[in-house]
From TrEMBL:
Source species, domain of life: Bacteria
Assigned protein family: Belongs to the iron-sulfur cluster assembly SufBD family.
Pfam families: SUFBD_core, SufBD_N
Native species: Candidatus Kerfeldbacteria bacterium RIFCSPLOWO2_01_FULL_48_11
Domain SUF system FeS cluster assembly SufBD N-terminal: 135-203
InterPro entries: Fe-S_cluster_assembly_SufBD, SUF_FeS_clus_asmbl_SufB, SUF_FeS_clus_asmbl_SufBD_core, SUF_FeS_clus_asmbl_SufBD_sf, SufBD_N
Name this polypeptide is given: Fe-S cluster assembly protein SufB
Family annotation (PANTHER family): FES CLUSTER ASSEMBLY PROTEIN SUF, UPF0051 PROTEIN ABCI8, CHLOROPLASTIC-RELATED
Stretches of the chain forming a coiled coil according to its record: none
Length: 469
């Protein structure tokens, strides 16, 4: 199969606009989604036949399913104009100095590899469709920990990937999951052996650089019995006048007595549609924690989910959304109690300013016979001006009487008395508003490692600029 592309396309797509970096791509597909493009991606990656078969079945599902209309407005997405596969380098590097200088400069600006040297157990950096850099501390490799980009995971551990791939989120789950299953590239494959605790976080950083680019990483995490891992991801993109699409799938299997924490600090530019499916299967006495911070993007639709499948399984979802002018952050969480004596907690915090729109969308399901289950849902919304909007769409399907269910929801504006008190202590109005907002998000910020909490507060400060006056 031919993989030739016209070089003028590459120059056009890598034009420098508002933070974009000039990149000479080693390969890029033609724009638009088709069987040819899917086959080209699989061929270029030299994948096994079963993966190509899965991709093609997913493509049929994508074409058959209608665009979601129940959430944010997705009518401006033009699937025919998007580039579904862009390869910035020919291979993944494990030495920072071997990366192309243009890519090194991009990641140096956001703190990689400085953060790696300081406190990270492993780092994976993805640029466009492919991982470009990967590193894992040797002592973790010696314990049997696997932390690879997803493509390397498929090559080196094909049987394990085949065992779990698509079992938590099948291609037929929704239209965007089908799209990811058809054109996925990059992402992380993490395997933690039984009893191994990875006390230092693993990190992945995702960058969309090109105009009209799509990024479709696929992340699969398997935590064996009694293990622990904290995985952190960050995301950025430059600003263009045209729209880009980020549609990831994250599948996590938490086995008996294991614990996984998955933290996201997402700051896509305001031309990116961020449409992500994240789900966990949690087995007996396991624990899953989602910590989800959403700041950038034009539209976000993301609802981290926990399926509690074993007695005593627990799931916590902490969601933060900040929407400014022209943004709609539709976020929340889902908990399905598929075993007795399971517990879930969903805490959603949202902030809207300058006509920004936030929505909490969540679901708690407890079928008949699931005795002793507990669930708490807390939704708090803060409006910074009279033009902003916040909506709440909670769904609770409780079919068992022997349960404990709590639901709280508040929406309000920053109080004039709060501002007056802080300003009487010498703060400006902007400083006072920022302090109130910082206090509002504190329950989520305290759950993030210090370095990332600092980054999140910095993003809040940037978003607060222009909120007064």
């Amino acid at each position: 199969m031919s993989t030739n592309v016209k070089q003028p396309e590459i120059k056009d797509i890598a034009s420098q606009q508002s933070g974009a970096d000039p990149i000479n791509y080693s390969f890029m597909s033609e724009p638009g989604i088709s069987k040819k493009v899917v086959e080209q991606i699989s061929h270029y990656k030299n994948e096994p036949a079963w993966m190509l078969d899965q991709r093609l079945r997913a493509l049929d599902i994508f074409f058959a399913k209608k665009q979601p209309t129940w959430g944010a407005d997705l009518s401006d997405i033009d699937y025919s104009s998007i580039y579904y596969y862009l390869r910035p380098t020919d291979k993944v590097q494990n030495k920072w100095e071997d990366l192309p200088e243009s890519i090194r400069k991009t990641y140096d600006r956001i703190g990689i590899p400085q953060a790696e040297r300081k406190f990270l157990a492993g780092v994976m950096a993805q640029y466009e469709s492919e991982a470009v850099y990967h590193s894992l501390k040797k002592q973790l490799e010696d314990l049997g920990v696997v932390f690879l980009d997803m493509d390397s995971g498929l090559r080196k551990h094909p049987d394990m990937v085949k065992q779990y791939f698509g079992t938590v989120i099948p291609a037929g789950d929704n239209k965007l999951a089908a799209l990811n299953s058809a054109v996925w590239s990059g992402g992380s494959f993490v395997y933690i052996p039984a009893g191994v605790r990875v006390e230092i976080p693993l990190q992945a950083y995702f960058r969309i650089n090109a105009e009209r680019a799509g990024q479709f990483e696929r992340t699969l995490i398997v935590a064996e019995e009694g293990s622990y891992v904290h995985y952190i991801e960050g995301c950025t993109a430059p600003i263009y006048t045209t729209n880009s699409l980020h549609s990831a799938v994250v599948e996590i299997i938490v086995k008996k007595g294991a614990r996984v924490r998955y933290t996201t600090v997402q700051n896509w530019s305001k031309n990116v549609y961020n449409l992500v499916t994240k789900r966990t299967f949690v087995h007996e006495e396991g624990m899953m924690e989602w910590v989800d911070g959403n700041f950038g993007s034009k539209v976000t639709m993301k609802y981290p989910s926990v399926f509690l499948l074993g007695k005593g399984a627990k799931g916590d979802i902490l969601s933060l959304a900040f929407a400014g002018e022209g943004q709609h952050q539709d976020a929340g969480g889902k908990a399905f109690h598929g075993a007795p004596y399971t517990s879930s907690k969903i805490v959603s915090k949202s902030i809207s300013k300058l006509s920004g729109h936030t929505s909490y969308r969540g679901m708690v399901t407890i079928p008949h016979g699931m005795k002793g289950c507990k669930s708490t849902v807390i939704c708090d919304a803060l409006l910074l001006d009279e033009h902003s909007r916040s909506d709440t769409y909670p769904t609770m399907d409780i079919r068992e009487s022997d349960t404990q269910i709590q639901h709280e929801a508040t929406v309000g504006k920053i109080g004039e008395e709060q501002l007056f008190y802080l300003m009487s202590r010498g703060l400006s109005q902007a400083e006072a508003m920022s302090m109130v907002v910082s206090g509002f998000i504190e329950p989520i910020a305290k759950e993030i490692p210090l370095e990332y909490a600092v980054e999140m507060n910095r993003l809040i400060e940037m978003e607060m600029e222009g909120s007064v006056g």
